[in-house]
Amino acid sequence: MKKSFVIILTLTCLIQSYDTRAQIVINNLSSAQVFGRDTFGLVYDLSSFTDIYDHKSGGNWDLTSLTYASSLVFERNSNTSVNFPSASFQEDIYYPFGGGLSYDAVQASELNSNHLSAIGEEIVTEQTIAIGAFTGNSNDKLVFPVQKITYSTPETELKFPVKHNDNYIVTSKHTTSFNITLTLAGLNNSPGERRTTNVISDSVVGWGKIKVRDLKSGQHFEIDVLQTVYHVDTYDSFYLNGKPASIAILTAFGLSQGQLSTSVETRFIRKGEVSPLVTVYYDGASTDVPIEIDIHQNRLDANSVGINSISEIREFTFYPNPSDENVQIIFPDANENYTYSVTDMRGSVFCENTSGNQLDVSEFPAGSYFISFYKEGEFIGSRKLLVLH
Fold it and tell me: Would you tell me which of 120, 244, 287, 377 could form a disulfide with 150, CB atoms 3.0–4.6 Å apart?
């Protein structure tokens, strides 16, 4: 009995020692690939992959048999904002609200040896949103003017070093200004505000190895990761002419005073990358209802620069950009079978499998779009188009 106990104790110590050595620690992202286009494979059929949501120490997650439904290209640019001089990079974001409406902004983030955090955002072009479909008056509208929006506290995504069992909570506030014309309520270009409080928590709940499949080549890669749960509670209040907006007006847009919206994500992060390797999205606050998995495709192989040739996508051009009417598409070779599709920031498709050289954007809502190019049906890459009216 004593000999058995010694053997078990020895094995336990060895296993614990192995676990300690196997865990990764992300000290910083100083050498990360920050700028450029990152491609993500999108997965919607999640019926047979429940174990990815479990918190594991020394876990092994195999996602190689997942079926990619589509891809998304996300662009991160070097900071050019005079409003946020300390920012390291910028990225396009959008805010949906009642009735399927939304507006776009550019978020500024700071990356240093201590943290990766969003510090504010800008609306860089005035955006006018028609709301007559909700009010019955074609003159009614929302206008989001050009503005700087500073977060009261940086909205932290990572605090370095990142290691197993770390957790933190951040509360941040910001205000977005707009003007509204609502004839029935006697409002004519009246000033309004959306006052937002975000309560953000991030917990490192597991670690291990995850296997993913390259969207383009089909090759499999096994990568060391930390598993985190990123939780955001957003509280919004709305003001018109300096006073809380009436219940009647808010109800017309599917809003409420002090309304709460919650997003929860399980993220698998790796060394040297700003974007998580894998992100699991859920329907609201419950992690019982996963709705999507995004798998980062760039630099899966440490010896590769990405899934696409950077020079190849640069051969596709279009002008003018920004545009308000017709965009001329230039393909690198008129004899090849090239097509393209256009999606907005939310992934809504505005055209697909198109081969013509003229793209009419006169009916597109103002905002940011991605033109994704294909050769013989194979995805090449995407470039951003800005539509102004």
Answer: 120
pLDDT tens figures, 191-235: 999 999 999 999 999 999 999 999 888 899 999 999 999 999 999
CA distances to 3, 236, 280 from 176, rounded to whole Å, are 69, 11, 29
Amino acid at 29: L
Total-model pTM: 0.76
C-alpha 382 chain-centroid distance = 16
Q: Could you report how far apart the first and last alpha carbons of the chain are, in Å?
A: 82
Q: Which residues contact 211 (CB under 8 A, 6 or more apart)?
A: 60, 61, 62, 63, 64, 220, 221, 222, 223
> In this structure, how many other beta carbons lie within 10 angstroms of the beta carbon of residue 96?
12
CA distance 229 to 373: 34
Beta strands in 214-245 (DSSP E): 220-240, 243-244
| CA dist 361 → 33, 128, 381 (Å) | 33, 16, 20
In 3-state terms, what secondary structure has residue 183?
helix
- Alpha-helix residue ranges (DSSP H) falling in the chain: 2-22, 132-135, 247-252, 310-314
Residues with Cβ within 8 Å of 341's Cβ and at least 6 positions away in sequence, in order, are 349, 351, 352, 353, 354, 371, 372, 374
